Amino acid sequence: MSQDAKAELLTLSHKLLQSIAEGDWATYAELCDPSLTAFEPEALQHLVEGLEFHHFYFKLPGGKSKPQNSIVDPHVRIMGDVAVVCYYRLTQVVNAEGAPICRGTEETRVWQKQDGKWRHVHFHRSPSRT
Questions:
Q1: pLDDT band at residue 65, thresholds of 50, 70 and 90?
Q2: Domain range for residue 92?
Q3: Closest Cα partner for 89 from 105, 102, 77, 78?
Q4: What is the pTM of this model?
C-alpha cells in the first residue's frame, strides 16, 4: 500500500475537517461526492443522503471561536479505488464563558477515487464525548 496515497487521504481528511471548522462550504462540497451518505448524531440514527442536510449547518451563523480539530490514531485502508480512513477526532473550542473544552468522536470516512481524484462518499460519526 502506497504511503503517498495514505498521506494524501489523511491530508484530505484534515482539509475536510478544516472546511467544516471554518464554515467553508465551497471546499467541503468540492471534496464530497454529491451523493454523500452519512450516519451522524445530527441525523438521529438515520442515514442521510446528499449534501443538502450538511449545507444547513454551514449556513448557520458562526460563533466567536472556531474549533480546532486533531486526528488521533488514524488508520487508512486502501482497496483499489476505495479507501477507509478511521480515527478519533478531538475538537477543541472555547465555550461562551471563555473556557477551553475538548470533545471527541470516533469517525470513519470512506473515499472513492473518481476521475483520478479522491472524493468523500460516506461517513459514520459517533456522538460527541467530553
A1: confident
A2: 3-125
A3: 105
A4: 0.93
The residues, any chain, with a CB within 8 Å of residue 67's CB and separated by 6 or more, are 21, 91, 92, 93
The answer as to whether 25 is a domain residue is yes
**CATH number of the domain enclosing 35:** 3.10.450.50
For range 25-43, the mean pLDDT: 97
Question: How many structural domains are present in the chain?
Answer: 1
Amino acid, single-letter form, for residue 25? W
Tell me the residue length of the chain: 130
Cβ contacts of 90 within 8 Å, gap of 6 or more: 69, 70, 72, 102, 103, 104
| Alpha-helical runs (H) found in the chain | 3-22, 25-31, 52-58
Q: Long-range contacts made by residues 83-90, C-beta under 8 angstroms, separation at least 24? A: 83/5, 83/9, 83/110, 83/111, 83/112, 83/113, 83/118, 84/108, 84/109, 84/110, 84/111, 85/9, 85/10, 85/13, 85/109, 85/110, 85/111, 87/13, 89/17, 89/125
Kindly indicate the confidence band of residue 108, based on its pLDDT and cuts at 50, 70 and 90. very high
Residue 47 lies in a domain: yes
